[in-house]
TrEMBL record:
Keyword Transmembrane helix annotated: yes
InterPro entries: Benzoate_Transporter
Keyword Transmembrane: yes
GO molecular function: benzoate transmembrane transporter activity
Coiled coil: none
Residue spans of biased composition, Polar residues class: 12-23
Stretches the record annotates as Disordered: 1-25
GO CC, one annotated term: plasma membrane
Taxonomy, superkingdom: Bacteria
One Pfam family from the record: BenE
Alphabetic keyword roster: Membrane, Transmembrane, Transmembrane helix
Record's protein name: Benzoate membrane transport protein
Source organism per UniProt: Halomonas cupida
TM regions (residue ranges): 37-61, 73-90, 97-114, 120-136, 143-161, 195-213, 233-252, 315-339, 345-363, 375-408
């Protein structure tokens, strides 16, 4: 079946056959909904929160935020990601997930100590405005059209490889849990392939409770109260924090995020997505949100066959993730405490198994050609190496190196 092809304009989306595909009606939504897609969206949120929520707390602490402001920071990110994931996936009928900028948060940890919280928010506003400006042009669309599909797939595989390895590295931490989940995954893939991840999720929760490895005594259910702080603008902070935050977000989050969606056969509305994520970042900045962008790693479970065999019904995963983000944003600190209470072996094993199918598809797409393996191989290896140069992560450098090799090999 053809995937949805979304023009980068304000017009309704169209499929490859030219049929208009407006936002789904309640009737079509009921037809398209599936348990596998709903679970895929929840898995994406689990991966996002469990893998980098601690970094957000460190960034907020570096900015001098108090406990109420940290809770507001998490609220802003959850609400912003929820609205954009839900709205973009609903409007364009493809799984368009958004996320917070984890590399951007890592940058803030080093750059914000000594910076007043109000000036930090001013830098967030500047970064958001720059994202919106890029979204009003077609620069990113032209750039991504120049990237061969094999390189995008190789970058995706390189990003996901560490998660696949985590399944087996978790055996050193707690051998019973990862090996049991691996056995469940293999069995479910044989008999219930579309339900493999839900089966692993249920098995993981049951085993964790049975082994007594989930301590919920410190978790309290409470809604988060957003805290408005009026941003202040310092030229030094805006140039030293706001501009680098924008550059890191574009290079390490939006670029890989677009490539991952394209590697699954979808044509994302690049400019529209950048405009809306930039606007959401701008609106959430006074509440502490440091930036919302297209998801990269956490989007992987939603764009592949694990979400649904029919690509036209995978947008449900994006809607599911959006709703989950909204709930987590409202609960804020409660949810963060829950994720912190999960055993590390469970998080590592579940994330790796949830991404295993997408990793395999990425490798197959990257190396399907027998004549041009150099460019995707270098892209894959550099991306998987997790190196950081000039403050920019390995996904960007892997793609740059692959493009250079591709251009050299195909130069007339």
């Amino acid at each position: 079946m053809p995937h949805r092809s979304v023009p980068d304009t304000g017009a309704p989306a169209t499929s490859t056959s030219g049929v208009t595909t407006d936002a789904p009606t309640p009737r079509s939504l009921r037809h398209d909904i599936s348990l596998s897609a709903v679970v895929a969206g929840c898995v994406a949120v689990l991966i996002g929160y469990s893998s980098s929520a601690a970094i957000i707390f460190q960034a907020a602490a570096a900015a001098g935020a108090d406990q109420a402001q940290i809770g507001s920071w998490m609220w802003a990110l959850g609400i912003g990601m929820g609205l954009t994931s839900l709205g973009l996936s609903w409007r364009h009928r493809i799984p368009l997930l958004t996320a917070w900028t984890t590399p951007g948060a890592a940058l803030l940890i080093t750059q914000l100590p000594g910076v007043p919280f109000e000036q930090a928010l001013g830098a967030f506003v500047v970064s958001s405005l720059l994202l919106m400006v890029v979204g009003m042009s077609d620069v990113m669309t032209r750039l991504m059209n120049a990237v061969p599909a094999s390189l995008a797939a190789a970058m995706l595989a390189g990003i996901l490889l560490p998660f696949g390895l985590d399944v087996f590295q978790a055996v050193e931490i707690e051998p019973v849990l990862p090996l049991a989940l691996l056995a469940c995954w293999i069995t479910a893939r044989r008999w219930l392939p579309s339900m493999a991840i839900p089966v692993v999720l249920v098995a993981g929760i049951v085993l964790t409770l049975a082994l007594g490895q989930l301590d919920t005594s410190s978790i309290e259910l409470a809604l988060t109260t957003p805290q408005w702080t009026t941003p202040q603008f310092s030229l030094k902070v805006c140039l030293g924090v706001g501009v680098p935050l924008f550059l890191v977000t574009m290079a390490t989050q939006n670029l890989p995020g677009i490539a991952i969606i394209r590697s699954a056969g979808f044509q994302p509305p690049v400019a529209a997505a950048l405009r809306w994520t930039g606007l959401a970042s701008l609106l959430m900045a006074p509440f502490g949100g440091h930036g919302i962008n297209l998801a990269a790693i956490s989007a992987a479970p939603c764009v592949g066959e694990e979400s649904h065999r029919d690509p036209r019904r995978r947008y449900i995963a994006g809607i599911s993730a959006g709703i989950a983000y909204l709930v987590l944003g409202l609960l804020g600190a409660t949810v963060t405490a829950l994720f912190t209470a999960l055993p590390q072996a469970l998080v590592m094993s579940f994330a790796g198994l949830a991404l295993m199918g997408t990793l395999g598809n990425g490798l197959r797409s990257a190396f399907h050609s027998d004549t041009d393996l150099d460019a995707p191989l270098v892209t894959f290896l550099i991306t998987a190496s997790s190196i950081t140069l000039l403050g920019i992560g390995s996904a960007f450098w892997g793609l740059v190196a692959g493009l250079l090799i591709h251009l050299i090999r195909n130069r007339r």
